[in-house]
Write a structure and sequence with these properties.
Length: about 250
């Protein structure tokens, strides 16, 4: 009888511990998505303000994009890399501030693509956003729920992302490289890579919660996770918008 009482008590304690762990994970994920969607909102506002004011003119010259545009583009890229490398050295509040700064830069740099879409068909912006949101939600849910280990995809996704960056850099020198069928293929590959990145990152964030120690580290990981998911969502949106405005 005593053994049964102990077993019942132990089971009750494990249930309470599991419930607390699930609750902690839920709070952790809510923090990640709050930061991520906050960054998306900041990007949208930055793009809108850039287009609605004379600020957009500094991004262009008579021959194309200006030096200011490239400074903001590569500055944002450098900031995102530095923030990821130093993620566990910053206070969570500092990391969140850097995420929002990166979101502002992304919004400004995205302005030329949005202006093309507005000129061609403004509805493509809404279409690209809805498709990106649905894909993001599905892949994030898959990454959270699946029991299959997705870690094998890491090296392939990283190589694919580097390939996309190299194609993007090459397009600054030879703009025609992203035209025609090849440009369409690049957009499709970009959407696929960042959709898979969403599932991959989501699984890693879930696993990281169980490994990380104190709350400060979990808050730092939440900021880093929000940055990763934000990059994937915005990249999917941009590639979809480019795909819808290929003509």
């Amino acid at each position: 009888m005593a053994i049964r009482n102990v077993a019942t008590k132990t089971k009750s304690q494990n249930t309470v511990a599991g419930t607390r762990a699930d609750g902690g994970l839920s709070v952790y994920l809510k923090r990640i998505f709050a930061l991520m969607f906050g960054a998306v909102l900041v990007t949208a506002l930055a793009s809108y303000l850039t287009m609605a004011t004379p600020l957009w003119t500094v991004l262009f010259t008579a021959n194309g994009l200006s030096a200011v545009y490239y400074v903001l583009l590569f500055g944002g890229l450098a900031l995102s890399i530095w923030a990821q490398v130093r993620a566990f050295s910053f206070k969570p509040s500092t990391g969140a501030l850097m995420l929002m700064l990166y979101a502002v830069l992304t919004g400004v740099v995205m302005t030329p693509l949005l202006l093309v879409a507005i000129t061609n068909n403004p509805l493509t912006i809404l279409s690209a956003f809805v498709i990106a949101a649905v894909m993001f939600a599905c892949m994030a849910l898959f990454g959270y729920k699946t029991v299959k280990d997705l870690s094998f995809m890491g090296i392939f996704l990283f190589m694919g992302m580097i390939g996309l960056i190299l194609v993007g850099l090459a397009s600054f020198i030879w703009p025609a490289i992203v035209g025609g069928t090849f440009g369409t293929i690049v957009c499709l590959i970009g959407v696929l890579i960042f959709a898979l990145f969403t599932a991959y990152d989501m699984q890693n964030l879930k696993r990281a919660y169980a490994v990380l120690g104190d709350g400060n580290q979990k808050n730092q990981m939440a900021v880093l996770g929000a940055l990763h998911l934000y990059i994937s969502f915005v990249a999917m949106f941009q590639y979809l918008l480019s795909l819808l405005n290929r003509n």
